[in-house]
Amino acid sequence: MRYPLVKLRLPDWIEEFLSDPDRDYPTEEDRMRLVIELSWLNVEHGTGGPFGAGIFDLSTNRLLSPGVNLVTTANLSTAHAEMVAIMVAQQIVGHFDLGGSGRPPYELVASTEPCAQCFGATPWSGIRRLVCGARDEDARSIGFDEGPKMPDWPAALEERGISVVRDVCREEAAAVLQHYAASGGMIYNARQGD
Amino acid sequence: MRYPLVKLRLPDWIEEFLSDPDRDYPTEEDRMRLVIELSWLNVEHGTGGPFGAGIFDLSTNRLLSPGVNLVTTANLSTAHAEMVAIMVAQQIVGHFDLGGSGRPPYELVASTEPCAQCFGATPWSGIRRLVCGARDEDARSIGFDEGPKMPDWPAALEERGISVVRDVCREEAAAVLQHYAASGGMIYNARQGD
Q1: Residue A192: what pLDDT?
Q2: Domain count, chain A
Q3: Could you give the dihedral angle defined by the CA atoms of residues A139, A145, A150 and A152, in that order, rounded to the nearest 10 degrees?
């Protein structure tokens, strides 16, 4: 085959870390702490940037799919934690619309507010609720570019029936970003060339 | 493995259609006509929505990677033509930044202007130039949702050093959208559920 297959594979440590499929995460803070831990472990294992995400089934409070940033390890600028969680979730349910008829409400939890790409991908995913930890200015403060986002992006999602909750465990989430920067983590915005 | 591998594979017909790797596409119109043909063939083969894209190397005018919409066949809401072309290109060059040091200038050609997701993904990809065929209102006129885009999205890309050219072969590109709608093609926006 002339053109390569594009493969996105979660790091091996995730399977071990998430070894109990029956564990539930009853509160927003429980769910956020899990994705913050994913962001931390992603840095510790050197498998990508300091961002974690997860899709949760709000009818059971269980995790459907985890996501971590895989930009530098998968060589894909699109492989942000939210995108990875969305794509893995859609493969699990076998459909491109997590909001389709007969499905439980799904929530996307992101350790940092979505960049312009992940914001734009959110309405297509079918999720009903978005919960964010660190603010995009927390990401920008360590040099990450969040892209061209409209000023009132939460309102644009709310208008489409997607609830947005911000600042859940913000300080804990931002601490992972600070740790990443302080330990010399790669700030991998594109266009490093001239 | 508990979590599935996410795989994005170009349809088999693309390999046959693009059988000459040395063919060059000297003008914008040449490059646009190729991606419009991809959008048309994607509908004819039933491999996805009526959208095509390609990444071209502007130092040789050759195609680096094609992309077609694979949302319904890959079960991935993210698998828009532009995203597929970007991801395949990054796998070919082996890097997440098509704009990295020492690389030729790459151009993304899209048969329809990018939706909110693909707009947000564009700065991360490393491309230097975006060429569009049909306008987003042409897509909306057949029922596709382009998402929450800032009104002057081309200016936001230009500010980041990405040139934007619009309306190249717009009528030919829009005709494929009209044909898709007239033949009963699926308008697959998310949140078809309640």
Answers
A1: 61
A2: 1
A3: 10
Span A6-31, pLDDT tens digits = 999 999 999 999 999 899 999 999 99
pLDDT of residue A193: 54
Tell me how far apart the alpha carbons of residues A59 and A145 are, in angstroms, rounded to a whole number. 35
Residue that is written with structure tokens 């130092």 in the block: B59
Residue range A168-177, pLDDT digits in tens = 999 999 999 9
Residue A137 pLDDT > 90: yes
> Per the domain annotation, does B8 fall within a domain?
no
Q: What is the CATH number of the domain that holds B69?
A: 3.40.140.10
The tokens for B14 are 């693309």
Residue B136 to residue B108: CA distance in whole angstroms: 16
Give the predicted TM-score (pTM) of the model: 0.97
B159, closest residue in chain A (CA to CA)? A148
Collect the ranges in chain B with pLDDT lower than 50. none
Residue environment code for A85-116, b if the CB has 16+ CB neighbours within 10 A, otherwise e: bbbbbbbbbebbbbbeeebebbbbbbbbbbbb
Retrieve residue A152's tokens: 């009132």
Place of tokens 């717009």: B170
Q: Which residue of A has its CA nearest to B93?
A: A75
List chain A residues with CB under 8 Å of B125: 77-78, 190
Query: Is A111 strand, coil or helix?
Result: strand
Question: Domain residues for B63?
Answer: 25-182
| Cβ contact B15–A8 (<8 Å) | no
How many residues appear in chain B? 194
